[in-house]
């Protein structure tokens, strides 16, 4: 199951040429991932209270078409799990006219806040907290 969030470009997202700034693309992607986690039924407050915090280790943005003030953009989230300490989230930012504006790929992990180390199996920790694990792309989820 895929997840998507619609975001309206604000004036504060623009550079002097009235294009969306690079920082805003990061924020759009962050906002959509957080909304996806919430929609999956995970309380980030409870996750942190349990001693875990999500961390971004790498972010890659590829720009395809411009976004401008007043545009809306749909930001999808596809979670890709492996067997290691990290996982990826691939996001597509699509304009209202159907054109892909950008793709964002994050390599992330789940930090044990006490040990200050990445947990060995982040998928297990996320899946244990999700009421809708299919939104986080877990195998076997509806």
Automatic annotation (TrEMBL):
SUPFAM superfamilies: Thioesterase/thiol ester dehydrase-isomerase (SSF54637). Coiled coil: none annotated. Keywords: Hydrolase. InterPro entries: 4-hydroxybenzoyl-CoA_TE, HotDog_dom_sf. It comes from the Bacteria. Its EC number is 3.1.2.-. Gene3D superfamilies: Hotdog Thioesterase. One of its GO terms (molecular function) is hydrolase activity. The keyword Hydrolase applies. This is Acyl-CoA thioesterase. It comes from Nocardia suismassiliense.
């Amino acid at each position: 199951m895929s997840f998507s969030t619609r975001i309206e470009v604000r004036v504060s997202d623009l550079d002097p040429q009235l294009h969306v700034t690079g920082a805003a693309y990061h924020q759009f992607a962050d906002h959509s991932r957080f909304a996806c986690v919430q929609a999956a039924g995970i309380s980030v407050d409870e996750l942190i209270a349990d001693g875990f915090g999500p961390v971004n280790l790498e972010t890659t943005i590829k720009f395809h078409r411009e976004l401008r003030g007043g545009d809306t953009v749909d930001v999808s989230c596809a979670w890709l799990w492996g067997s290691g300490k990290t996982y990826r989230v691939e996001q597509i930012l699509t304009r209202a006219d159907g054109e892909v504006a950008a793709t964002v790929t994050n390599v992330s992990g789940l930090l044990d806040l006490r040990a200050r180390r990445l947990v060995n199996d982040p998928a297990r920790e996320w899946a244990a907290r999700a009421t809708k694990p299919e939104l986080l792309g877990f195998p076997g989820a509806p």
